[in-house]
Amino acid sequence: MDGVPDGWVVARVESGRVRWHVVPDATAVLAVTTGCAAVGVDIPLRTPTGHRPRECDVATAKALGRARSSVFPAPPCEVLDAPDYAAACAIARRLTGRAISVQAWNITPKIREWVGRDLPTHVVEAHPELALRRLAPETEFASKKTARGAGQRIAALARWLDVATALGDLPPGPRMDDALDALAVAWSAARWARGEAEVLGGGPEGFVVV
Hints:
Blueprint: E1 2-4, E2 7-14, E3 17-23, H1 26-32, E4 39-41, H2 55-64, H3 85-96, H4 102-106, H5 108-114, E5 123-126, H6 128-135, H7 147-157, H8 163-168, H9 176-193, E6 199-201, E7 207-209
């Protein structure tokens, strides 16, 4: 699944067919994915335990190369309760020596929904841009906000399932790039379920699967 302004868009893939859900929070995500062999989440599920970035964030950024800017490193847990961006930056500087990005701050409400939960082992963290580059390694992806970038992502995901039919069933609310990200994360989750996934990072700070 992938975050949307009012919650999460969930792509539940069964036998090559996609059933969509738009739900308000992590609790609802877990409810509508009951029975799934694996659940991929496009958000940090753990936060750093020290002053350094998580190993999985560093490894994911390295694997993405020129697209590394799409990785927003998980902020320290203390940042999640900051009242505003300025306070979040002050806390991050004290703990790590660096402020957090605006993009990372904007996803802190989503991170709060997951951090601290006792999640089952089939719920894993994944990164859509990395999944897409594994699906189509020869593609130089344009921004997902452009028509070219959307077309490239649809073509990459079409190697796995019928994306056109899936998007035709998309309910109102989610943008196309959110839906494509959810499908990309579902591809990584399917690989995890089959025991085929590459695992980046590990330990108490979590890992990313692709």
